[in-house]
Automatic annotation (TrEMBL):
InterPro entries: Pyridox_Oxase_FMN-dep (IPR024029), Pyridox_Oxase_N (IPR011576), Split_barrel_FMN-bd (IPR012349)
Species annotation: Bradyrhizobium jicamae
Name by which UniProt lists this protein: Pyridoxamine 5'-phosphate oxidase family protein
Entry-linked NCBIfam families: PPOX_FMN_DR2398 (TIGR04025)
Residue ranges constituting the Pyridoxamine 5'-phosphate oxidase N-terminal domain according to the UniProt record: 31-150
Amino acid sequence: MTDPASADLTTIYPQPTARVIAKARPDIDVHARKFIEMSPFCVLATSGSDGSVDASPRGGMPGFVTVAGPNQLLMPDRAGNNRIDSFRNIVEGTGRLQLIFFVPGIDETLRVGGTGRLSADPDLLASMIEFGKPPRAALHIDVTEAYFHCGKALMRSKLWSADTRVERKVFPSISQVIHDQTTLGEPESQEVVYERYKTQL
């Protein structure tokens, strides 16, 4: 058996424990709220009506995603590459999404699932000013599930360890990478890119 079918999975993996099943909650409890309030970074995953899947990084100051209630989160949308793949998936597809929240120094992560809808309400956006400007839009997330992942994946990767950090200079600048891939634009050093990024947060 080299390509397992669904029925084969039970011969490879044991059944999850009752505790693992029970930890999936239908809302944001006190612990999930605290974790989100400490989190400066998450990954947003969405799926399109054509079956395509997108995952994109989102970040801000700790607590940039607001817990508006036990079943509602609010996420500001900051300047990015303007592809808006995630938002196209939400407005054109089912709206279903998943988030994984990270807190530097903590190996456990928090997964939140639900459905999203977009808002460009001026009052809401004005309440979410960060880095001196309001977001372009806000994502309302109606939460249907939340649970904590154990820390084994981050422990294996040593994600937060200073010993595993690499010097940025060992990899070409993102400008150079994209130039090599597309031949568009002029290559710039990572220092130049970084200084420009700081004006676009």
